[in-house]
Amino acid sequence: MPDKLEPLVIGDLEIEIPIIQGGMGVKVSTASLASAVANCGGAGTIATVGLGYGMPENETNFVKASRDGLQKEIRQAKEMSKGVIGVNIMVALSNYEDLARTSAREKVDFIISGAGLPLCLPEFTEGTSIKLIPIVSSARATDIIIRAWRRRYNRLPDAIVVEGSLAGGHLGFKFDDLISNKVNSLENLVVDVLKVVKGYEKESGANIPVIAAGGVFDGRDIVKFFRLGAKGVQIATRFVATHECSVADEFKESYLKAKAEDVVIIKSPVGMPGRAIMNGFIDRIMHSERVPVKCNYRCLKTCNPQTTPYCILQALYNAVNGDLENAVIFAGSNASRVEKIVSVKELMNDIVSEAIEELGKA
After folding, report:
1. CA separation for the pair 246, 227 (Å, rounded)
2. Which of 132, 182, 337, 353 is deepest in the core (most CB within 10 A)?
3. CATH code, 8-248+338-360
4. What is the pLDDT of residues 137-172, one digit of tens each?
């Protein structure tokens, strides 16, 4: 039986335990969580969205407040850990370029980018050694990104995150397909993306590890995707129920109380479907209630404050602060399987032990 897992190698970056902690906004994946994961040998991720929210300057200079908030989180994470620290940046953000350039100046180890195709990301990190990792939900999106990066920047992605339909938060699938369960399984998506990636690897001689995400819960899941050809996994939902996650206790308790049927697909003002835990706020929105939005900026490219039914940023911020009846509580499909709040170290040890035990059965 093996006594450890193979590390996730992305170029010259080695992640001892092949687990990337997923980026969760708003202010769910911050320095405290990211550094704790990194200290355990995984890769910690800071979610860049909304880090300036709640600061007075956010109302007058949204871009600067966001930049300052991100800079603060990155520096704190680096002070708290010498491990691997990266960021997640949504393409849908109106200040996407500024956040990417800020991350480059702060010398994070990697940038993971989704909620749209990050076709211009290499432009914002030129001259750095930061690893660039797109999030995709199809083989077609993978091919589009690789072709664009190769043509425009003469480079390839350093790794690919394949995110399936069981993930929490915003999803890269059509609402109707999710509701009718007509989406491809993560297993099939990983296999399809690997076929595309292997073609480019053979042609270029490069190594582009594929990382499975969306519904990955335990060590058995990790081994399942390793056997399909993935080199690592991204896990988000389970890290919410840790002591180091800085959200309110009420937020964490909502995971512990959730039943499988409580985790639902919603229509987000972002223009994408999302997965969240049903509560009074979501019920009111589903019944066409509109929450007036007072906004001096447009943080999302697709948002129109005049017509949006509610501010998704405010709703997510409310969740983090424990105001659950006015909140959207994003969660993955396995949220109902979370049974207790533990330390990041205990969670990582449990997942790795399960994976090693599963590998020993082969």
Report:
1. 34
2. 132
3. 3.20.20.70
4. 999 999 999 999 999 999 999 999 999 999 999 898
